[in-house]
């Protein structure tokens, strides 16, 4: 279930980055709308992942797998905060919503989502051994 929830922020933040790049290449305002919608969807899915990762970190704190769960929870929290700031950036005036700041925030959000996915996959593989 957790992997399914994590797929939403990974895919949506990544595609928001692609739509930001498309806007910067074409100046078609609809791309900023797509980015905003994708970011909001990623934040909604990311909120569920964040709640789940906090529960996982609390449970893992009592077991031997403390560090990976804590790293994962911190990555998800930073990803969500960066995505929230990105959503505020994208909610500005349509022509200036992306720019350098929006693009950098989209890169950070997508990179954190992908990194959190990698940490989660690695942790699950190690726990299965």
Written overview of the protein:
The chain has one domain. The longest helix is centred in the middle third of the chain and has 32 residues. The protein is elongated, with a radius of gyration of 16 Å. The mean pLDDT is 86. With 129 residues, the chain is mainly α. This is DUF2231 domain-containing protein. Keywords: Membrane, Transmembrane, Transmembrane helix.
Strand content: under 5%
Query: Secondary-structure element sequence?
Result: HHHH
Give helix % range.
over 70%
Number of structurally distinct domains = 1
Number of strand segments: 0
What gyration radius follows from the Cα positions, in whole Å? Answer: 16 Å
- The residue-averaged pLDDT reads 86
| Biggest sheet descriptor | none
Poorly predicted regions: none
Organism: Sphingobium rhizovicinum
InterPro entries: DUF2231_TM (IPR019251)
Domain DUF2231: 1-120
Protein name: DUF2231 domain-containing protein
